[in-house]
Amino acid sequence: MKIADWIMGGEEVNRLSFNGGILFLRIFIGLFIAFGHGINKIPPAPAFINLVSGLGFPFPEFFAWMAGISEFFGGLFLAVGFLTRPSSFFLSITMLAAAFLRHAADPFSRKELALLYLFIFLFLLLTGAGQFSVDFILRKKHGHLQS
What we know:
mainly alpha, 7 helices
């Protein structure tokens, strides 16, 4: 398997219900993370940079930017199904940090949202974008689909 096949790959399931379900999940979760969380972090506010610094990250301004870029652009990429697996990977890392560093001492009810996002991103990392996606169109265009 070529790396490009994996990056833009996905399971070849020809069921409308499966592909439609992934489409709706991608659109809503992508837009929610992009506009509910990511857009407020670009550019990262000094308070967010201080929070990242307090979590122990070296180069807190860099990691604050990476969190914002991951959430905003990764969310938009998920919504359209472009680079779904790489976007899901970086979003998963961001949600691991949110759940287990930022909210480490918080009750489960505060960690729950980050964990929910984490498991949805892991799901998309494993399945890919489905047939209703830019990834699928690009794979088809470049002959990476089996007939």
